[in-house]
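Project standup — Tuesday

K.O.: blocked on the structure for the chain from last sprint. Re-posting the sequence here as requested.
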Amino acid sequence: MRTDLHTHRCHIYTRTFPALKRKPFPVIEHGRDFPDIMPLARTPKPEEKLRILVPGQLTPHKGADFIARLVELDKGEHLEFHFLGTLPPAYRHLGTWHGPYERDDFASHVRRLECHVIGIFSIWAETYCHTLSEAWACGMPVVASNLGAMRERIDTHGGGWLIDVTKPLDAYVALTNIREHPEDYTRKAAKAQASNVRTIGDMADDYQRLYDSIKAARRVFTRKSLLQRKNSA
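H.V.: unblocked you, prediction finished:
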């Protein structure tokens, strides 16, 4: 069971339920099954725009207003946004919309669009972020907001850059700098490809161990209770 990561979320739980502080508890990380990880990353050249693929549904809490600010700062010079998923009409001026997609077809779209990075710009703390797993399963480095699970996972495994979505100008500079450092991009892409996304089997094994430990503890508790009753009879 994974107890070393996700400390931020554990603190949220213990702050809400102080009684949990008296006894450590496991946090089991999600698992996903993917085909073999594909090296679909493409190192950007300094003279070309950085192509950013934003998958999923774009809403204000997923960073729509933040992206709008980046587009305003850029004025079409250095960044090129591509959207894959549900895009409300109010945001379609921000880049190129490629329509909705099925999760099983995600890798084929990534291959076809030839973007350089995948952007996940949620303004709240994601609890896990399956889109991050899907990006890494394509060997794609990710630019993500430095909140919640995305911060924890990228800090632990690498495979991307963290930005502050409350500071659009700083984030814009960080994005435009990606093109200027191809060696760093190559390192991030290699870490994305080697991120070892946990499988459903890994997750199931953790749950099985947790259930087994609870069952064993209950059996010990039951035996002690029976002995105490027998001795007091």
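K.O.: great, moving the ticket to review. The chain has two domains: 1-30, 50-193. Helices lie at 7-16, 64-74, 106-113, 130-137, 148-157, 168-178, 182-193, 200-232.
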